[in-house]
């Protein structure tokens, strides 16, 4: 019997692709680690235990066939590994880069539980698909047999792009409308290049364009482009706008110059990376160079901000978070990367006020220590103010990264009959994924609230199936009526 290429986890230690030194990577926006060489990818894939109940797949929102493509990689069958990886995901190389694997697949790996260190699933996934692009294995998007029906997708983020791809493959004419001048949503403008280099996103979008998907960029849906006009133009609509409204801080001085929202800051930085003219960056308003920066928040967006500030040449970068390290929502790997790059984390602390100089520009953050009290309704211990614990931090730039809420879409679209939940997300029938308006569907963060890219891809995949069924039924009814 041939030697089993798997189950090497006892004798082969876990090894991620080597990261560049913190000093080197703080000078640019390149990804911080290269991908595996072929022998390393095969060796690390061979650590998979091929367990009977693959918790990695169960805890992946896409239910990727992870053990199967790990085995194929270990056997050197990379094209088959790619095809299997691609079968469940429209963006496997993007998920391999930005998914919080420590909370999903790798965090639930059986050999992680045994103390041997998880299989490096995300790094292998990135390796497989990057290799596929280089070798020409990534197939063009081939439209299905034309149905004569048209679909409009509002939002060119992960959910919208995924749904557009599946609907085009089903034979529908697909038009994508987005507020930005480039497609990709937060993949393009929200996530920094050191986590996701933009060429990786752009080649995906180019593939969709070459497959016949029509992009309408800088589209002012609800303004110059009325929502009712889109409903009249298309046989079905998908709202996949994501959530973009920054959560506010209520504190004296919060309106001072130099107290900015995270998304505006990240968009400015990413636009500069594309070579765009960005007046707010060029003026210094959204540029951390030489500044003492304080970022408020503990999620992945906050980590993106602190690490961007380092690369812009900030004099110092501090992150305030009201809970402790163990209870932060962001990836622990991102925290470790930030610490390596010189970011100082001030746990169990929250801002109370923002001081400004005579010119109205922020000069300091006044904050207080917090402690964790009794669990709140979600089960997390709620932060409470520690009496008489105030302190002051010098700050020339304060970035608010407390998360995002939905925009008021019924008002924005001039469609008050569009139903929303008490959180402002769109209300859908979870069986059909349709909103309160016939033929108008919704998916992604605008339904579930701010979430992960991988969940947006999953929702896009699901809603495409529901929309295709709706369109088929509508076509059948039309033929019967004729």
TrEMBL record:
Residue ranges of every copy of the Dihydroprymidine dehydrogenase domain listed in the record: 26-136
InterPro entries assigned to the protein according to its UniProt record, in alphabetical order: DPD_II, FAD/NAD-bd_sf, FAD/NAD-binding_dom, GltD-like, Helical_ferredxn
Give one Pfam hit by family name: Pyr_redox_2
Domain (FAD/NAD(P)-binding) spans 151-455
Statement: the UniProt record of this protein carries the keyword Membrane: no
Q: Which UniProt keywords are given for this protein, alphabetically ordered?
A: 4Fe-4S, Iron, Iron-sulfur, Metal-binding, Oxidoreductase
Q: Do you know which PANTHER family this protein is assigned to?
A: GLUTAMATE SYNTHASE [NADPH] SMALL CHAIN (PTHR42783), GLUTAMATE SYNTHASE [NADPH] SMALL CHAIN-RELATED (PTHR42783:SF3)
Q: Write down what this protein is called.
A: NAD(P)-dependent oxidoreductase
